[in-house]
Design goal:
Structural class: alpha+beta
Strand content: 5-15%
Order of helices and strands: EHEHH
Radius of gyration: 15 Å
Largest sheet: 2 strands, parallel
Number of helices: 3
Length: 72
């Protein structure tokens, strides 16, 4: 099986960031050039729309959220 690189679609120029814009990153685009790339928006795959409201983690980080010490 050929290996692929999973890349967030907004970094490759797709307009799927929370505000409906892209977050194209020239370094990411160049790194992916000529490689087998699977691009997707993790937030939209999770059922969120575009554009969508912003969210922040309060009182910690992602690990704290998973362990119940912080919330989004």
């Amino acid at each position: 099986m050929e290996k692929a690189i999973f890349v967030s679609a907004c970094l490759l120029g797709d307009r799927c960031a929370y505000d409906g814009l892209s977050r194209e990153n020239a370094r990411v685009v160049e790194f992916c050039r000529g490689k087998n790339v699977v691009k997707a928006c993790p937030e939209m795959l999770g059922g969120l729309g575009c554009p969508r409201e912003t969210h922040e983690i309060v009182f910690g980080d992602g690990k704290d959220v998973l362990e119940g010490r912080a919330f989004v």
